[in-house]
Each structure stands twice: as C-alpha cells, then as structure tokens.
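Sample pair:
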Amino acid sequence: MTPANPAPRGEGPALELLVHGVGGATAQGVLGDPRTVRITGDGKAAVFRRTEDAQAELHPERYAGRPVPEAYCWSNLTSGNGARALWLLLLPFMVANLAHWMRPGAVGSRRTTRVYGALVRLVALSLTVLLTAAACEVALDLVAWQCAGTHACGGARGRLEFLASAHGGWWSQPGRRLALAAAVPTALVALLWYLSNRTWSAYESQRPPAGPRAAADGGADTDDGGEDDGDGDEGEGEGPHRPALGRTGFWYGRRLVARLRAAHTAAGLLTVAAAVTGAAARHDRAAGATAPAVYGAVLEAALALAGCAVLYVVLRRGRSERRLDARLDRAAVRLLPGAAALLLAAGLGYACWSRPGWVSAGSLPGEESFRVIVLAQGALVVALAATARRLHRRARHPRAVLGGLGGPAVAMLACALGGVMTGGVAQRVADWLGGPGVIPGPPVLLSWQASVIPALLAVLLVPALWLALRTWRTARRLAPAVEREYGAARPDAARSRRIAGTRARARLTDAAPVIVGVVSATTLLLGAAAVVGAWRSGRPPARTLADSGPLLATAAEAAQALGSWLVGLGFVLFVAMGRRAYRDASARRTVGILWDVGTFWPRAAHPFAPPCYAERAVPDLTWRMCTWTDRTGGRLVISGHSQGSVLAAAAVWQLPSAARRRVALLTYGSPLERLYGRWFPAYFGPAALAGLHEELDCWRNLWRPTDPIGGPVMLPAQGRGREVDRPALADPLVYGRCDRYPLPEPILGHSDYRADPAFAEERARLLARLAPPLPRQGPASGGTRADGGAQGSSGRSSG
C-alpha cells in the first residue's frame, strides 16, 4: 500500500534493474542473497529484490550513494520445465524463423523487402509440408501400405495383423488401411496447432505500454485504419519515426501468428488428405471406375483450390509494427483450417469406399512429392539469396555476415535439418519393420540424400582444420603481447599461453559465418545432385552405379550405409537429448540456452516454432521502467549481461522520451554488435545502434578480449556524450600474484563481469550523469506502492 507519509521526492534512491543472460539464472544468484521477495510478476517472469530492500523507497537514507538492486528473472520463459525440451524437435522451424530477421536493412526497398519476407514464409510453409509428408510416409506408406500389404511383415507383427491383406477383414483393403493410418499425421498437425495456439495466448498476447508511448512521442504510431504490411515497415530497418525495434507493435505479433497458424494447419491437413485421396483416385482411374474416379477428381481439384488459398494467406501480408494490431483475420483463422478438415474427412470417406480388387504392392504412389518439395526448397533458397544480395547492395553493411547472405544460408540449414530429421525417422521405422529384404523401404530420394552426407562432412572438415590451425597460430602470436600488456616483470610461459589461448579461442565466434556458408553452399549443391540422381535413375545409388564397376558400387553402398546410419543417429540424438533434458535439470538448462538465443525473435515466418520469449520479457521491462520512473521520478540504470543486454536494449528502444531521459543503459558481455549486429543488420546494424546511442545519452558497454560472446559495440562519442565502449577489461585482473591478489586470479571470459571494479565505477558514473530526481507526484489510485509494483505483492516470497 502507499505509505501514509511518503519520503520527500528528492531523497528517493536510484534503482538498478539487473537483467541476467542465458542459462537458467535465479533471483538469489543474480542478487547474491538467498533471501529474496517477488515485487511483481508471476511464475514465468518476475522482478525480485532482496528482502531487506523490499521497501527501499520508504527508507532513502539507507541508500545514499548506491542504487537499489532489483533483478528481472526471465529464465522460466524458455527453460522452466522439462516439457520444453521437446521443442528440440521444432528446431528446423526455429531456424527458418531466424532467416526472416537476418535480411539486410536497405532504406527505400519496400517491395524487395516484401519479396524477401514472402520467400521466407514459403520456405517455412515447405517445412510444415515436409514434416507432414514424412509422417504420411511412415504411417501411410511404410506401415499401412507396405508392411500391412506384405505377409512377411504384416503377418509377423501381431499389432498390425488386423490390417494385413491376408487377414481378409474390413480394414484389409488398402484404402481403409490408409484412412486409419492417416490418424497419425493428423494427430501430429493437431498437436502442433494446439502448442502454437497455447503459446500464442501466453506470449504473443502480451500488450506493450503503447498508450503512454504514443502520447509521449506525438502519436506517431496511431492506427490510421489502413493495411500495414510489416515486411514493408521493417524493410527500412529505421522508419521515419523510430527504428524497427522501437515501434509500438514490434513485440505484438498476435495477428500474424494467428493467420500463419491457420495456414500451416490447413497445409498439414491438406497434405494428409492429398496422400489418402491421391492413392485412391489413381486406383479408380486405372480401374476405369467412372463414378469413383469423377468423385476423386473433384476432391483433388478442391484440394488444389484449398492449397492455393493457403498460399494466398501466407503471401498476402506480413507483420504490422507501427501500431498495436489486435485484430484477427477471422475468415482465414476459422474458415481455412475448417475447410481443410472437411476435405480431409471427405478424402477419408472416399478412401474407405469398397474396392475388393485393390492390392497394395511396392511403394505407395506419390514418391515424387518428396522430390518436388526438395526442389521447391532449393529454388526458394536461391531466389532468397538473389533478393538478399540485392538488398545488401543498397544497404552496404560492412560487417554483415556472408555479404548479406546470412538469411538464405540459415534458411538452407533449416531445410537440411528438416530433411535429416524426417529422413532419419523414415529410415529407422523401415529398419524396425524389417528392412529392405521385407519391404521396399522409404523413397529412393532419402537413400540418395543419405549417400551425400559423408561427402558433406568431409567438406566441412577442411574449414574446421583451417580454423584450428589459425587459432593455434594466433595463440602463439598473442602470448608475447599478453606479457607486454600486463608488464610482467617475470613472465610465466604457461600463464601467458593460457591467456593467449583463451583470447584466440574467443575469436572463433567471428569465424562462424565461414562454417555456416560452407555448410549451406555444400548442402545446396549436394542436395541438387541427390535429387537429379534419384529422379534419373529411380534406384538407390549403389544399384545405379553397379554397372560402372565394383569399386564405385562398393563406395556408393558404403556411403549410403554410413549416411543412413548418421541420419538415424542424428535423430536418435535429438530424441535422447530431449528425453534427458526432461529428467535432468542441468541438461534442461543447456537446452534452455539454445532457446534463449534462438527464440528471441517473434514468430514472423513459422507459427509452429518455439514461442518468442521477448514478446513477454520486453513489455515486462518496459512496463517496469515506465511505471517506476513515473511514480518516483527517480533515476534508473538497466544493467544487462549477455542476452539480457539485448533484452535491455530492446526495452529501452520501447520507452517514451520522458522515461528514457531518466534511464541509463549498462551492458556487459553483450552480443549486440558482435552477433546481432552482424547477423541481423536491419535491426542491430550500425545505423540502428547509432540511433539508440543518440536517443540514450547514458550508455556504457564493458567487454573483454577473452569473451567468446560479448564484444564492443563500436559507437563513437556523439554530441556531449562519451564513447559507449570502455577500453577492454583486463582478464584476468592481474597477471600474477600481488599484495591485493595473493592467489592466482581466474580467467573469467564471459562470466562475473559485476565482480570487476570497473562495473561499479561505470554504474556510478551513469547515475551521476542522469538528471536529478523530479518532485514527487501525488499517490495514484488503486493502491499502487511507491516502488511501482502492484498492491500486496511485496510480501510474497520468491519460493
């Protein structure tokens, strides 16, 4: 409750809002005290203070010369329970979503930017179709068609005996077996829809404080009632009013995710319907059954029209960012999945039509669908690369990865991951059912794709060895420089080598684009070769090369076996990692780190990707800073480490001008320029960071040369402000032993920045530069406390 006798406004303490990085941090660890209380928030994300600081605003005399520490803990948004470990299976979707945000930011290229966004959304749609087609391949082709139609497989497995053609039961006809097996891919699509809808309600529906901001900034983001294409909005990276991350609706993707969820759900259901309906229609046309053939043709035409409707919804428009777009495209969200479900039901009924003479032999017709999907993905990636290159030529971000081709390269990796995971499932199920000697097995294309995996690994070995050699040579070159830097009177060769080696290994992060580029280009070329080989020969590579000599045939067979084993092993490792993370807290934190980095961005391309935690965290931080500075008029420094510095910067971008004048930003171990500025140049490129520095005069960044993640932001001084980067911190603090440090100091790298004396020094300078406290405003209605939290929350334990 509001105190009866509030302290005079000029005596209020300053606030330090700490935002941790990845890895499942706790309030006790961030604040360095086992006794903490929750000030505001819930079990997913909350603001905590030490117990003794819960009512700091009532006792300003206790905090003279130091701020009140406060921790925002968001780790449960990504790694709070073991169920999230199953999100590993959604990794291709997450990677495809990242490709959307990696495009170059070119001013004045609105149409080209829209094309880029549309192409990424098509790549994402192809991954949904690929996943559903793989489920159909396993359930419909391998189990219902091949195994149940073969006495050696279906008759030998008791659980599948009622489906066997030799059983003679109602389910023994191929069409009815396919209709029953369609329940598996249909359930998969329904599960993805459910997860996306559930997370959409929890993440994308968190409203940022748009009202105060729009009023404070002149109403730049008010809704004019017109259509607002987000791809066009974000295309310039910096709009006429503010950068993209500062726009009112950037962290509110409710409308787009709902629309894409409907389209992808419909696409998955239509894929299942096409697999079932197509098999029955081909049989009816071959058998000359007039009425069933006409019905099948009508169904196929309806499926084609529904597919065109899905493409229209996906291509129609992107994100709305200049305003809070709370509308929903109800025609697409409700009618499209419903129509797809009706067509699926009609197709299942059509497949159950009695066809006594229909016998399943060989593989299920429709194997060419995998070739079409892979070819479409390759063509989309090539078109995406051409579009990105055109944007990069206009933008010319000198440090953008791969010359602006980071997005297409990552999109190619998403397609490769999808192919490996789906191929691994099909191969393992085929082996479990009996292998090539019992059933024909999965499509030939999967065998060709498995054969090129060893070649891909061999190509990848070359840059890996080159990087290892370069790191070793860099470490040797840096050792004398380390001794000179510390002014070591008695150099220790082992100590110098350890420090130099740590610095050299930290530079490997900057070489990641080389690895990504090599893997993506090689995957594209080898994937094209696999499609051509499978299409021309129609046989596995070993049988295709049998006539070319025993040596080539043996090599092809070995490559196919090794690649198939590696594909299966990769999928098994994914499942094993997810299962271990479900049971092991340490493994769960490791998986959480992956999502902390990969799910920062909103779901702009794939609605089935893991949810964007920043759509909850950024509004949380913005609300906290706005309400605390408005209620108290005090000074606030938001202090972000690693990924927390990215969240802090994004929240500062969202602040209204009045609140931003009372806020300072302190970042340390920050990947803002080193990773985000290079991989996402449209949003964290030089122009965007320079704009943030211009709007926020009080910003300081700490970094170490031994840090593999954080680095300088490389922003010069502007106006009356200082340069953002402090000179590199010494790591370790001292080279050897001394009076103050009698024991050897560790090499900290990316951790424990707050233990460095420079941290407290820079924090004090930032607070000193902020404006003095404003006169206290009158108590607000509703019983709001002086610290800006909700009434009655200060006494709750952190648990």
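The first helix runs from residue 27 to 31.
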